[in-house]
Amino acid sequence: MKSALSAYGALIFLALPAAAGAQTTVDSVIVTGRPDPEDPAVVADARERLSETPGGVSVIAAESYEGRFALALDDMLRDAPGVFAQKKWGGDTRISIRGSGLGNANHNRGLLLAQDGLPLNEADGFGDSQVADPLITRFVEVYRGGNALRFGGATLGGAVNMVTPTGQTAPYGLRLRVDGGDFGMARQHLAAAGQQGKWDGFAAITNQTGQGPRPQSQQNIQFASLNVGRQIGETADVRLIVNGAHIKQEIPGALTRAQSNANPRQASAVNLANDYARDVTAVRSALTFNWDVADNLAFSGGAYGIWKELEHPIFQVIAQESRNYGLFAKLDWEGEVAGLRADAYAGVWGRQGDLDSRFYVNVVGSRGALRSISYQNARALDLFGEGRLFLTDQLAVIGGATYGLAERDFDSRAIPGVAATFNLKADKTFDWIAPRLGLLWEAPDGAQVFANVTRSVEPPNFGALSPTGIGFAPVQAQEALTYEIGTRGRRGPFIWDVTLYHAELEHELLQFTVSQDRPATTFNADETYHRGIEAAVDWRFSPAWRLRQTYTWSDFAFRDDPQYRNNRLPVAPEHLYRAELRFDAPTGWFVAPSVEWSPRGAYVDFANTTRAPSYAVAHINAGWTFRPGLSVFVDLRNLTDEAYVSNVQPVIAATPATAAYWPGDRRSVFAGLVLDF
Question: How many Cβ atoms are within 10 Å of 224's Cβ, its own excluded?
Fold first, then answer.
């Protein structure tokens, strides 16, 4: 802890020199001081709004990644401090904030994924990041930990909200983009935006195909988006948003350490033999309404619905159809309390999800005999509110809380002749109150210091409850108390965002892989802790040169556990550092070498017998704007062709036969052209 505090102090010291210099943009740091002319207005507005939060928040503008080959959330969130987002295969990204869903075998848990402020998560908390297209995202908001209260969020990880462009915020009228490169990757994107009177609209489509860097990695993906809005009078607007995704992706599988060392470009033999894949078709529609009721009171509300069909050949063929829908309403108020300036918001979320599931024998990727039938219904309700009271012009005290209710209903049907099936009806209800208290101090130049303490609760989803013939597994809700302190702002050529947090957890939901071709099992730990540093520092040391750095320290461990003692938790590396040095020439071209460094590999197992290897991977990105609206880029990944492990699957105790290693992509080159009108 001493070394971590020293690093924390050094970063703040680096950030605070009061030298005069050019201003710059950091696409993952909140800035509340002088407006930056390089910031699009819609992104600057989002930064200002999030700066009211007394805790770790970030905004990532599309401009920060559109000049490189960004395929999924790991590319979008690369420069967000405190976010662990690493690709496993295709678009499947392991994403964790502050250890949320740590060790989750597949997809997302413990983190709210949202689009335009409305959830992408299913009603039981399961999240799927693959349905989000970076090219149909105007900017991304990241709320770390309890700072996601405005979404009703009460999980350890917080929320990631992807905001789509509108006819008002898209920086073009018509865009044509084509890019691609190694591994047979090719992507075509077409988007149009505009305004006419009180109406505005945005529409886009993306087609993406590729063979992938390993066998059993082929993908064929299409995204589409429609965003239509209308102004109602001078004080209200209504907006319809429709997004669709059709995803067909093969799964190459994790490897043993020996396989990864010998040939990281191979696929798992099991995955090849059984044609493992994950195919998703999803349509999401949302209707939102905003109304400035008075000068100091605003209402926002919305309704959404998601239909999704999954065909997932793995150890069996999982065939599921789900329907999720919900309502949202929130009031924002500004005024005075006892003569002191104040503001507050309060809202409600209601969500319902129904999922029909069938498992079949996997016959080389096709459905064989039916093995199980189940129906899963989830309901969730969140009531939340938060207020700020300014004790002085610069110091505000913040208090808030959320009340949560989560219900799980499970119904399985016995199949004649299949001994492992059963008739079962099971249900479970969780409810909680999660309070929050914070302080926010802002200097005249916009620099901020903040602190907060937040309680968080995460009820188990259906996957964690693992129903059997006698009912749900005895898995409890995860609870945590998180303390957080940090600072952010701009001074001279520096922009910084540094947060230190410490979370005490009870009943942490942890998962481990049962075997190479079986789903994971969830258990509750007794007591654990998560603490760390989330830091980003940008240094514009000349008008043409910028050094961007992010560093995450993650110290996650058991506390006096009867079985695992004080072992570290697997999956997340203790230290992860990223840096990019960018030169922008006045003639319109740029070059940006970057590095990602994990100086000590993450543990693979809870027994702490095996680590993944450390690694350092270098990249270089370059581009040229020929004229306004016409640009090209080249993105060279893993310049030294480093054979490294980007991700691991958690197990109880690793052996040489454990297939738990996901190899990172080897050296590759991508290029693209963007034409705007």
Answer: 17
Structural domain of 300: 2-676
Dihedral of the CA atoms 170, 171, 174, 177 (nearest 10)?
A: -100
Nearest Cα neighbor of 479 from 455, 511, 501, 510 is 455
Beginning with the edge strand found earlier in the chain, give each strand of the sheet holding 57-61 in spatial order. 57-61, 139-144, 158-163, 112-115, 118-119
Name the nearest CA neighbour of 241 among 316, 138, 352.
138
Number of domains comprising the chain: 1
What sections of 20-121 are H helices per DSSP? 41-50, 73-76
**Position 35 confidence tier, pLDDT thresholds 50, 70, 90:** very low
| Cα atoms found within 13 Å of the Cα of residue 528, Cβ hemisphere only | 29
- Judge contact between 507 and 476, C-beta under 8 A: yes
Whether residue 510 is predicted with pLDDT greater than 50 in this model: the reply is yes
Contact between 426 and 412 under an 8 Å Cβ cutoff? The reply is no
Structure token pair of residue 643: 């054979």
Q: What is the number of alpha carbons within 13 Å of residue 12 lying toward its C-beta?
A: 16
State the SS3 of 327-341. EEEEEEEEEEECCEE
Left (φ > 0), alpha (ψ -120 to 50) or beta: where does 98 sit?
left
Residue 649 neighbours by CB under 8 Å, 6+ apart: 105, 254, 513, 604, 659, 660, 661, 662
Tokens of 582: 């960018």
The CA-atom distances, in angstroms, between 282 and each of 189, 219, 225, 273, 357 are: 19, 16, 12, 28, 16
pLDDT tens, position by position, 282-328: 999 999 999 999 999 999 999 999 999 999 999 999 999 999 999 99
User: Which residues 6+ apart lie within 8 Å of 18 measured at CB?
Assistant: 491, 492
pLDDT of residue 8: 35
State the Cα–Cα distance between residues 69 and 87, nearest whole angstrom.
Answer: 14
- Can you spell out the DSSP letters for 31-54? --SSPPTTS-HHHHHHHHHHTTSS
Answer positive or negative: Cα dihedral of 123, 125, 131, 132.
Answer: positive
CATH of the domain at 523: 2.40.170.20
Q: What is the pTM of this model?
A: 0.91
In 396-492, which residue ranges form alpha helices assigned H by DSSP?
A: 462-465
Q: Give the alpha-carbon dihedral of 561, 564, 566, 571, to 10 degrees.
A: -120
pLDDT tens, 148-170?
Answer: 888 776 788 999 999 999 999 99
Query: Residue 144's beta-bridge partner residues?
Result: 158
State CA 83 to chain mean position distance: 8
